[in-house]
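Posting this for the archive.
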Amino acid sequence: QVQLQESGPGLVKPSQTLSLTCTVSGGSITTSYYYWSWIRQPPGKGMEWIGAISYSGRTYYNPSLKSRTSISRDTSKNQFTLQLTSVTPEDTGVYYCARDGGASGRPFGSWGQGTQVTVSS
């Protein structure tokens, strides 16, 4: 079974860049036809999809966050990363990485445990 684990700093200062890494084991991030997503949940609010990178390296972003978001991958390490620039306290929340099977597979069937990120000075 595929396993995902988030890692990165738990505290980020306003105006700086939030950077997280998702390490995948038990499956390759280049396997067709999976999409590798970042999702977040602010305290007391619902889930918000941030964006994804496909098995081929194509990226997709939530329009509300697109201008500040960059998702990339390192296939040699079987990792994909999230960078969110110019963060504010509203970016505080639990950040998850997940595998999405796309239209022909199980949607968001595998998740990491999540990691708390706090934006504060």
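The radius of gyration is 14 Å. Residues 92 and 118 are 5 Å apart (CA to CA).
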